[in-house]
């Protein structure tokens, strides 16, 4: 019916369908109508006051069977639809298979570069954010029909590996690295810096080892590869806990034989300048610091490898967009790199390369089991959340089956939801009471709403195939819930456009809260068969929508909890 309304307005106001779609609103309160068309925007081009425009459109639309009442209120034309028809239309549209999905992305590819931890360093809470946000964007874009390439651009190349090799040879052992993994590699790295402060020749040695790596020295590469494997194994443990995966693990090292071509391109385009022995691209004209391309000793750096990666991905995946999910402190880095791509004559860089920054994570009043100092491992937070949920289950529902599995879905879900509930750029602080509060605006609350729906469908007798009598779903709360559910397709499109999973998280919460109001006002397990069937059908739509919305956030739903 929304489509019909749009068509009516478009015809009456002589506007195109897309424009009306964009302007049409859902009013915040039902007494303001089911849809509202604001006329401010038209006032300028029509040289007329908005209320007059609204009145004109209303007159042109006239009497239509689907409309109960048209009302001009200030600059708005409010549409009150025939309730029963509206309910039928909303029930039907929400019942279609893959409700919410669309084909707008068909034939298009999006690369998402996210997670990307640094080898030999711990997978910390910051990397948890990029992983969670990136994964959600992957789900959202897939739902819209895009082909998505999930790329883990591991930090697995650079001078730090020269340092690590020196430290390993001087103070490390195979046994210790095998036993303690990344924690031992971090210890060696810290030790290197402590020692190098006293003895500068260590730095020369480290540079020499990295140069060996860049020249393909077998011993250097063997040790490096071993460090990578050990780190990756740990990271994969965290991904498994999160239930997340990648299409490509292509770290910085993948581009080591592709950076020379980048340097050549820049040279040919006359973009390279020498500065204190290093090679840079001057970006002063664009109010940015220069982009460093090659160090004095000829080695490539982070930016060079990012440039190589962009060209590789463009040639390999022909992406329409390539998204980079990292902390906001890398804003300048990406602005520089994207500018350099553009300066090489690639106009697509402007719209296709997008940095998606996010805020900091802090741990407020949370006692975390850290393995060393105040370095917070992402895995420890996830495990602690699971543990806390386990305790709650033991207290409140000791008879629950599959306790461990449920605790994992709820504990991990709580962290994910908390992370995704606010705009990316906002800082996230973990406070366990807040993250795990079953009554608050949390993941567990939404999951619990899903569980209630599932339980109703299990316990109430109903006929799945019965024709629904839509006139039985005219309660205010039922209509409000249906309206909420029907926002789903638009919600997904908005989330994609803004690169904001929080739009979906907020929606899931709205549906859950709306369901709660419905459930309090309208008993489901009533005597009357028709009424029961109709209400159960609404419960079932709620259940499916909650599951799909949470899935877009990377969060699972237990059937019981
Ligand atoms: N490894 C980097 C870090 O941990 C993130 C890499 C982001 N991706 C990229 N293509 N630069 O900060």
SSE map:
Blueprint: H1 2-13, H2 17-23, E1 35-38, H3 40-46, H4 50-61, E2 67-73, E3 76-81, H5 83-95, E4 109-113, H6 125-143, E5 147-152, H7 160-171, H8 174-180, H9 182-198, H10 201-214, H11 218-242, E6 248-249, H12 259-268, E7 272-275, E8 278-281, E9 291-294, H13 302-317, E10 321-327, H14 331-343, H15 349-352, E11 353-358, E12 361-363, H16 378-396, H17 403-420, E13 428-430, H18 432-435, H19 443-459, H20 476-485, H21 488-498, H22 502-521, H23 529-552
Parallel strand pairs: 4-5, 4-10, 5-6, 10-11, 12-13
Antiparallel strand pairs: 1-3, 2-3, 7-8, 8-9
Helix pairs in contact: 1-2, 1-4, 5-20, 6-21, 7-9, 7-10, 8-9, 10-11, 12-13, 13-14, 16-17, 19-22, 19-23, 20-22, 20-23, 21-22, 22-23
Bound molecules: arginine (ARG).
Count of helical segments? 23
Gyration radius, rounded: 28 Å
Mean pLDDT: 95
| Shape type | flat
Poorly predicted tracts of residues: 366-372
Distance between the termini: 38 Å
List ligands, each type once. Answer: arginine
- Strand order across the largest sheet: 6-5-4-10-11
Question: How much helix, percentage-wise, in residues?
Answer: 55-70%
Give a quick account of the main beta sheet: strands, pairing sense, barrel closure: 5 strands, parallel
Count of DSSP strands = 13
Strand content: 5-15%
Q: Which class do the helix and strand fractions yield?
A: alpha/beta
């Amino acid at each position: 019916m929304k489509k019909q309304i749009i068509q009516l307005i478009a015809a009456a106001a002589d506007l195109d369908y897309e424009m009306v779609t964009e302007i049409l609103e859902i009013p915040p309160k039902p007494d303001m109508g089911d849809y509202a068309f604001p006329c401010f925007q038209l006032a300028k081009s029509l040289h007329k006051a908005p209320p007059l425009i609204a009145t004109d459109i209303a007159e042109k639309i006239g009497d239509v069977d689907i409309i109960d009442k048209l009302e001009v209120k200030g600059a708005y034309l409010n549409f009150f639809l025939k309730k029963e028809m509206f309910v039928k239309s909303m029930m039907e549209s929400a019942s279609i298979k893959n409700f919410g999905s669309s084909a707008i992305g068909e034939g298009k590819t999006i690369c998402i570069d996210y997670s990307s931890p640094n080898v030999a360093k711990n997978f910390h809470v910051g990397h948890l954010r990029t992983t969670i946000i990136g994964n959600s964007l992957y789900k959202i874009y897939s739902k819209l029909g895009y082909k998505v390439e999930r790329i883990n651009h591991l930090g697995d190349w650079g001078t730090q590996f020269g340092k690590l090799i020196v430290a390993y040879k001087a103070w490390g052992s195979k046994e210790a690295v095998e036993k303690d993994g990344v924690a031992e590699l971090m210890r060696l790295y810290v030790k290197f810096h402590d020692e190098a402060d006293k003895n500068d020749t260590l730095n020369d040695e480290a540079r020499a080892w990295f140069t060996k790596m860049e020249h393909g020295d077998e011993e250097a590469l063997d040790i490096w590869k071993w460090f990578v494997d050990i780190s990756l194994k740990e990271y994969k443990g965290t991904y498994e806990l999160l239930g997340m995966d990648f299409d490509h693990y292509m770290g910085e090292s993948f581009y080591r034989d592709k950076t020379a071509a980048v340097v050549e391109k820049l040279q040919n385009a006359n973009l390279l300048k020498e500065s204190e022995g290093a090679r840079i691209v001057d970006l002063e004209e664009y109010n940015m610091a220069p982009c460093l391309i090659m160090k004095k000793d000829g080695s490539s750096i982070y930016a060079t490898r990012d440039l190589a990666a962009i060209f590789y991905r463009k040639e390999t995946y022909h992406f329409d967009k390539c998204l980079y999910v990292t902390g906001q402190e890398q804003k300048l880095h990406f602005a520089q790199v994207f500018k350099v791509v553009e300066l090489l004559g690639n106009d697509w860089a402007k719209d296709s390369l997008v940095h998606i920054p996010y805020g900091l994570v802090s741990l407020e009043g949370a006692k975390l089991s850290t393995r060393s100092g105040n370095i917070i491992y992402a895995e420890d937070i996830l495990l602690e959340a699971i543990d806390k949920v386990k305790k709650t289950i033991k207290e409140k529902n000791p008879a629950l089956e599959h306790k461990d599995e449920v605790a994992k879905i709820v504990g991990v879900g709580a962290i994910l939801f908390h992370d995704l509930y606010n705009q990316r750029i906002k800082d996230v602080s973990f406070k366990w009471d807040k993250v795990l509060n079953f009554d608050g605006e949390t993941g567990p609350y939404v999951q619990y709403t899903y569980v209630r729906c599932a339980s109703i469908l299990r316990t109430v007798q109903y006929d799945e195939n019965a024709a629904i009598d839509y006139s039985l779903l005219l309660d205010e709360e039922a209509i409000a819930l249906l309206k909420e559910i029907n926002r789903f397709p638009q919600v997904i499109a908005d989330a994609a456009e803004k690169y904001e999973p929080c739009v979906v998280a907020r929606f899931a919460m709205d549906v859950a809260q709306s369901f709660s109001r419905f459930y309090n006002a309208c008993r489901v397990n009533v005597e009357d068969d028709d009424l029961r069937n109709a209400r159960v059908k609404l419960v079932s739509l709620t259940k499916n929508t909650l599951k799909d919305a949470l899935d877009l956030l990377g969060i699972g739903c237990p059937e019981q909890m």
